[in-house]
Fold this protein.
Amino acid sequence: MLNATRAEMTPEDASNIMGGSGVQKPNFASSMASNMGMTEQSGPMPGIDISKLDFVAKAKSVFDASMEKDKNKFG
């Protein structure tokens, strides 16, 4: 039935049915962002500053210790 409609419909018929502008695909990312209250803005977005978490400050010392251990193990 859809194939028959497509074959018989003229471009003018399609334009009249669809309001002249055709069908626009929605922008999913924009609609989800607006649903979550996010808007375009310049500068940093609000969120969690992970540099303030205590384990982040310890990360370098843990990494350095693991590198030293690997160096002793494989070196």
In short: Residues 55 and 62 are 10 Å apart (CA to CA). The radius of gyration is 29 Å. The chain has a mean pLDDT of 77. Helices lie at 2-8, 11-17, 28-35, 54-74.
